[in-house]
Specification:
By secondary structure, the protein is of the alpha/beta class. The chain has 14 helices and 7 strands.
């Protein structure tokens, strides 16, 4: 992406006020389910020409644009090498914050494949029977919902559940995006092996030379390993790289695109104390203001590749 596109996006975000956040877009209850429940505050559809990422970004609702300062979607997708016509797997797509950008950007020659957590993980989060029933039909329900999000020249949409990748899907994707999706997989790894299983699916679904792009809440490098096990939302960068290499991926590069040095969590902190969730400070204006001043979490941005041979 050229500099004019980047400056256009920054200008749009600045014009509407970057400090705004969509607190309604994520669950304010259990921190463990916050990442899964994310939904845009509007269901408005978007029409944009494939490859016109600047136009796609500019067409999003104000609450979405307000978060570009922390999520940096233009720079992030450029760093990962995402291009129109690709087949892209998006882990934990939820209400479609990134999906609504990817679908028009990939265009009708591309495909977006959602990948959800295994149903067993949701049981560990204490989901009710009604919510578990929705989880059971997610792989068929989510694509039908996603197809209503974008009009015009848009990517085909499908879905699968991590740990249940079909044989015919192996070797079909150009990229896998794991955006704030690893911590919950990691926190249950010792008991259930969810992280290793998900990374195996990521490896298998990719073509040789395929890309994995990771954006993940980043723990301080000197944090206690037990604290940085994913249960607080944070993982260490060294841990993520180690797990990816063990799964067969080659490390390509790291970027500070999504870094926030103001986020320095203590031993009692969870990532959901920060905006947009503001867990623990909803009724404390002073504390909420302090969290807003920090902004969204410090995030590692890592690129990996599946070996070509």
């Amino acid at each position: 992406m050229n500099k004019s596109v980047t400056f256009l996006i920054i200008g749009i975000a600045a014009a509407i006020g970057l400090v705004a956040c969509d607190n309604s877009s994520q669950s304010n209850s259990a921190a463990t389910t916050e990442d899964m429940a994310e939904v845009s505050a509007t269901s408005a559809t978007v029409q944009a020409t494939p490859s016109d990422l600047a136009g796609i970004l500019a067409a999003q609702p104000a609450d979405v644009i307000a978060r570009y300062t922390y999520r940096n979607p233009a720079q992030t997708l450029e760093f990962f090498g995402i291009k129109p016509g690709m087949t892209v797997v998006e882990a934990l797509p939820g209400g479609g914050w990134y999906s609504k950008l990817l679908m028009p950007f990939l265009g009708s020659d591309g495909e977006l494949i959602g990948a959800n957590y295994p149903s067993g993980m949701y049981k560990l989060f204490g989901y009710s029977d009604d919510r578990m029933a929705k989880v059971a039909t997610w792989a068929t329900d989510w694509p039908e919902t996603a197809k209503t999000w974008v009009e015009g020249d848009t990517a085909n949409v499908s879905a699968f559940v991590l740990g249940d990748l079909a044989e015919q899907q192996k070797g079909t994707a150009d990229a896998v995006l794991l955006i704030r999706a690893l911590h919950n997989l990691a926190r249950f790894e010792d008991q259930h092996g969810y992280l290793n299983s998900a990374l195996q699916d990521a490896f298998d679904v990719l073509k040789p030379g395929g890309i994995v792009g990771i954006v993940q809440h980043a723990a301080p490098s000197d944090a206690d390993d037990n604290w940085a096990n994913g249960s607080k939302g944070y993982l260490k960068q060294a841990f993520v790289i180690e797990k990816m290499q063990a799964a067969g991926f080659e490390f390509v590069a790291a970027s500070d695109i999504n870094a926030n040095p103001l986020d320095v969590p203590g031993a009692d902190d969870v990532v959901w104390r920060l905006p947009p969730t503001l867990s623990g400070s909803k009724d404390d204006e002073e504390k909420a203001a302090a969290m807003q001043a920090i902004g969204e979490s410090n995030r590692m941005t890592l690129k990996f590749v599946k070996p070509a041979v």
